[in-house]
Specification:
Low-confidence stretches: 1-40, 351-361
CATH class of the largest domain: Alpha Beta
Mean pLDDT: 85
Organism: Acacia crassicarpa (northern wattle)
CATH topology of the largest domain: Rossmann fold
CATH architecture of the largest domain: 3-Layer(aba) Sandwich
CATH superfamily of the largest domain: Vaccinia Virus protein VP39
Family: Belongs to the GRAS family.
Protein name: Protein SHORT-ROOT-like
Keywords: Nucleus, Transcription, Transcription regulation
Strand content: 5-15%
Number of domains: 2
Number of helices: 16
Radius of gyration: 22 Å
Number of strands: 9
Subcellular location: Nucleus
Helix content: 40-55%
Length: about 425
């Protein structure tokens, strides 16, 4: 929808430059948030962002050009990536709404991806991941639950093969190596096959592989665990993986670990990827995904927008509670969200499946735990986490600020466990066997 007239060209260029480059939109004190009128201006209520953003999404859906102009202008005046949590949300969602309104989502997404690729390095990514894990259980929750399920499923085996599909640069595995080193029986041989996806898998993969390999091999030697590391990168689709390509041997006890990986697969192709996992005859498959539904409402823009805003509001709130106000790590994590938000809201499925192989898998279509359960049950049966694993997860959560909790999956599925933030589920972890 190209609703902007030629006289608005300068304003469009202004918005586009500001949003794509992630600069501060306006550094005023936003005293206008105390205003209230029937025109949709924000009231004194500090939670002005959800209504204003949703009103703008509705205007875009309805093609109401004057209202779109008005609301985008208001958001641009009030939003800031350096303000409070509300202003930050407004800033990043404004970018996506502008892209949606001007049909510039794919171009903006490519620009954001290019910027991210150029700034990517192994050290910076690893430091950010480790700092995030230090202050928040958002990723460590899934690591502890998955490691526990994998160790129990492979107990007593002498040749282990873990296929790791995640982008956490092997930060999950040192604790598992320690556990293997202290087993009462013979220390097993561990082969770890890491499948690199997304930006890490396509840009600088060689340097990433080298750094990760050196660190993991050094730690395995320190632990006295026979260890072999293989990495696979450059894939356009997880469905390209095969038993032969993964080097699965008949005598190996296989575990498949998926952390935030399945949401990057196109919705229509997820069943095929799960079938591929089944063909590996694994002892266990662990799946960890963020709890949001960006799939079923993808053809209903306003409903999809509301779900996207709900999820990222929770995520930004956890970052605010976990990091200091001036934390660079927090700002980096928030900026990482900008690309996901644009991808979900301003890029249609035709762009997600388009000819740019570099971004083929990054569809960002999250699904809720119950939705993943329905998919997984076609090939696997759910395995409950043992009391020992649940105790480990509870002990982990005690290391962090109050507000985090462990919750069982509600009926009817009752598959997996949830990480809750202030009683809202945000991450789902599960274990499956053939």
């Amino acid at each position: 929808m190209n609703f902007l007239s030629s006289k608005d060209h300068h304003r469009r260029r202004h918005h586009q430059d500001l949003n794509i480059n992630g600069d501060d939109m306006h550094s005023n004190n936003h005293t206008s948030t105390s205003r209230s009128s029937d025109s949709g201006e924000p009231s004194h209520d500090s939670k002005w962002v959800p209504k204003l953003l949703t009103d703008c999404a509705k205007a875009i859906s309805e093609g109401d050009s004057p209202k779109i102009h008005h609301l985008l202008w208001m958001l641009n005046e009030l939003a800031s990536p350096y303000g409070d949590c509300e202003q930050k949300l407004a800033s990043y969602f404004l970018q996506a709404l502008f892209c949606k309104a001007t049909d510039s989502g794919p171009r903006c997404y490519q620009t954001l991806s290019s910027i991210a690729d150029k700034s990517h390095s192994f050290d910076s990514s690893r430091k950010l991941i480790l700092k995030f894990q230090e202050v928040s259980p958002w990723t460590t929750f899934g690591h502890v639950a998955s490691n526990g399920a994998i160790l129990e499923a492979l107990d007593g085996e002498t040749k282990l093969h873990i296929i790791d599909i995640s982008n956490t640069l092997c930060t999950q595995w040192p604790t598992l190596l320690e556990a293997l080193a202290t087993r009462n029986d013979e220390t097993p041989h561990l082969k770890l096959t890491v499948v690199l996806t997304g930006a890490i898998g396509s840009v600088g993969a060689g340097s990433v592989m080298k750094e990760v390999r050196q660190r993991m091999e050094k730690f395995a030697r320190l632990m006295g665990v026979p260890f072999e590391l293989k990495m696979i990168s450059g894939l356009n689709h997880l469905g390209e993986l095969t038993k032969e390509g993964l080097g699965v041997q008949k005598e190996e006890a296989v575990a498949v670990n998926c952390v935030g990986a399945l949401r990057r697969v196109r919705v229509e192709e997820r069943g095929g990827v799960i079938e591929m996992f089944s063909s590996l005859n694994p002892r266990v498959v662990t799946v960890v995904e963020e709890e949001a539904d960006f799939s079923s409402n993808r053809n209903e823009f306003v409903k999809g927008f509301e779900e996207c805003l709900r999820f990222f509001s929770l995520y930004f709130e956890t970052l605010e509670e976990s990091f200091g106000a001036t934390s660079n790590e927090r700002l980096m994590l928030e900026r990482e969200c900008s690309r996901s938000i644009v991808r979900v809201l301003a890029c249609g499925d035709e762009e997600e499946s388009g000819g740019d192989d570099h971004h083929h898998e990054e569809c960002e279509r999250r699904e809720r735990g119950r939705q993943w359960s329905e998919r997984m049950r076609h090939e696997f049966r759910a395995v409950p986490f043992s009391d020992d694993v649940l105790d480990d997860v509870k002990a982990l959560l005690k290391r962090y600020r109050p507000g985090w909790s462990l919750a069982a999956a509600p009926p009817p599925s009752e598959d997996g466990i949830y990480l809750n933030w202030k009683d809202e589920p945000v991450v789902w972890a599960s274990a499956w066997k053939p």
